[in-house]
Design goal:
Helices cover about 0% and strands about 45% of the residues. With about 110 residues, the chain is mainly beta.
């Protein structure tokens, strides 16, 4: 696998475009660059059977969010409050920031 240049980062608010969780909005917990996937909070949740350990002596069935392909996610813009395409703009000081394609506002905090 090759590394992809992803525009989705950890802590981003994203909307799911396709699949069983279509239309849901969640926060990105983890980005898997090599697999072009992201783990999103409360999206694509699977039930995992966990055996008892010292940390969790009870064990049992646990809900765990599984990775979603990044092509099925779209970043939510904070200013226009809708899913948008993302562009990259270079500031005068040379720093690159992500911008919303529809309102040209900066997405990065």
């Amino acid at each position: 696998m090759e590394n992809f240049k992803l525009k989705i980062k950890k802590e981003d608010k994203v909307k799911v475009l396709t699949g069983k969780d279509k239309g849901k909005i969640g926060k990105v917990l983890k980005v898997l660059r090599k697999k072009n996937r992201a783990v999103v909070e409360n999206i694509n949740v699977a039930k995992i059977h966990q055996r008892p350990t010292q940390a969790n002596p009870q064990g049992g069935i646990v809900d765990k969010p599984m990775p979603v392909d990044c092509s099925n996610l779209m970043i939510m813009c904070n200013s226009c409050i809708k899913p948008v395409r993302v562009g990259i703009k270079q500031l005068e000081d040379g720093k690159k920031v992500r911008i919303c394609k529809s309102c040209n506002e900066q997405i990065d905090a």
